[in-house]
Input
Amino acid sequence: MITSDAALARCQDLVDLARQMGADEADAVARASSSESVSVRLGALEEVERSESEEIGLRVFVGRRSASINTSDFAPEGLRTLAQRAVEMARLAPEDPYGGLVPREALFSGDGTDLDLSDGGEPSPGELREAALATEDAARAVAGVTNSNGGSASSSRSVFALVTSNGFARGHAGGAHTLSASVVAGEGGDKQTDYAYRTQRHRSDLPDPAGIGREAGERAVRKVGPGSIPSAKMPVVFDPRVGGGILGHLLGAMAAPSIARKASFLIGREQDQLFDSALRIVEDPHRLRGLRSRHYDGEGTASVPRALVEEGRITGWLTNVASAAQLDLGLTGHASRGGGGAPGIAPGNVYMEAGGPSVAELIADIEDGVFVTDLFGQGVNLVTGDYSRGASGLRIRNGELAGPVAEITIAGTLPEMFRALVPADDLELQRGIDVPTLRIDGMSVAGQ
Output
């Protein structure tokens, strides 16, 4: 796979070509990745897969007009044609008063302290196979597991490079290691499936395969024999695995492009106390070995640690160049880039700080409620804040987890859910967007 230095050189060459073809400004983004995975099922090897990909994207500006294009053809003539075509496309594009590059004075210029995003290791197919087998074996060993969808282990590496015509040139490499298992519990018409997985930058940081497998098996077994629940308003408790989605909805509504399009339920609520005053939501893009760690965003602006919610209030919108210009705001370091197209918005590592009560204390006074472990459907409207999802999990009766429930719907509005939200003390930083167990009272639950 290409190195960071080689990716930077390729980006620089493409930016230079675009300027030669008549672009006033340009930037180029290179991405490369390689991965190897081994899957097993019922103790037998099922698949060994290796993949590699490389692409480069070019964005050019001719006056206030711009165009983006990407390719996987790195031959000199191919890149020259790409640059020429991009400039020609830009000349035909409509004017955009908000597009452009990050001003030179706002570009990241720090020392780029190592964030330790890769251990440099590439486990052999044999090592991956043994890890996958150990994970699946542990899942199948759980009493009540009747079949397996398989276990897998994978290792991947990635490279990112960004060069702009106004002086930014940075690249970095990363890696990741993943273990997972998915198994079936129950017999006949009452078969239930569940899974568990972990991803870490360093292989040594992964939990023991047996623990991951055991979690998958136990999650599947506890879903067997689900009932329903009477329709009512009641407390809903979210497992951290699904509770992170609630935080994701907040981040989506805080994205400045959505604000500029008048497409966020947070418009007009900038000064409102959305959450309890003790609640904080923090972004830490400089976390060592973090899954979303970075020093700079997809346009070259510095990414900095910050509180996104302080004393229950949001602290501002998440911007890129275009949305910052449209809203007359500063740059916050949240631009994201794919191979081509206009930059989007993506935060770094984000987490909701843990609360005071344990999970047991969080549910102790709930006479009748639901502990949600799975969510289905896309019934979240970030324009209005309406929330409605299919769900399954466990019933809470008299302060304790009872039998499984399925085919229910939970509904509310995100502002109401935020105000009622209470976090437990079990925060673990695992996914890049993390929350502890969350309790939200007064949600509408519809059973059969």
Observations:
- The longest strand covers residues 145-164.
